[in-house]
Amino acid sequence: MSRGVAAGAALVLSVGLGPVSSPAPAGANGAATAATAPAPVAEQQAWLGSANYEQDECAGSGPVAMTGHQDRFVHTPLDGLPRELRLDQTGSADNATVRSTGSAQVRASRPRPGTYATSLTAELGVAATPSLDVRRCRILLQTAASDVMTVPVARPSWFVARSSRTGVVHGYVSAYRTVGSEVYHDVPIGEARAALLPPGTYDLSITAIASAEVPKASGPVAAGGRVTGSILLVPAGALRTRSGTALRYVRPGDRSCTRHRLPVALTRAARTKVRTIIFSVNGHRRLVLRGPALRARSVRVGPIADRSAGQVRAVVVTKRGARHTLTTTSWPCA
């Protein structure tokens, strides 16, 4: 099995996917250097197609010529809008009529610097209808949809893969570092996984495949189903969740994985209308601000364990006795 291509997908993808332009490479050690700072991310590319083959050592074996409609490629800007591809093709192979059908919808976005999101929803089908009971060859049917994004990763980031499937389909969600030492993650469709990626330039892809084999002597054969997959790439330490009513007074940022602390800005309202602010980390009190300490423009709350969710809770008590809270979590640093 080649890197980034599952064995069952190799046939389809080898004839389907073209090159995807890549941003400037990272340094030899995998980290971005001043001369090769991360360039803007390449636009995402999606593909939908089929590759049906006659097998065995028989006369005329090889690719099946397919005709009909095919939206082969689409380039997807990072704007969060859906792009769609459709496929409906037929062909003849060894006294059988074969058909490949599919539809795919892809989206890509960059919610904030260093964070990327992409998704693929595909419905795929293959079918063969033999016209004779006895035929010379087996026929391999495959229809696939793939969504590929090349991104520069300037600092350690979480690769979060999620997917589901119904019917007879398979595939994978993957991340592969294209420059420097190899980093490779391949997650089968239907599983969820998160992995921390070191800096570098990565190909992120979601691939869905419908396939079936038609024996030499068989009746009609069909397979297909629906795949939904998504990838989130987010820097370690980035703010993950935020809830509560104290945002008027405290503004948490992203966790620093080198200082092991969370920077929190104090607003003008905090400096003029608040009596006390109590910060806790993962349920343990870490910092209390009152009096002159409230005049600071920002504070750093910690330490925060690298592998924890970094839950920081602020309890704000105003001079009038009102009580407000704000709870945040961040992506782990390890």
UniProtKB/TrEMBL annotation:
Residues making up the signal peptide according to the UniProt record: 1-26
Region (Disordered): 88-115
Bias type Polar residues, positions: 89-106
Keyword terms of this UniProt record: Signal
Domain of life: Bacteria
Protein's recorded name: Uncharacterized protein
Organism: Nocardioides simplex
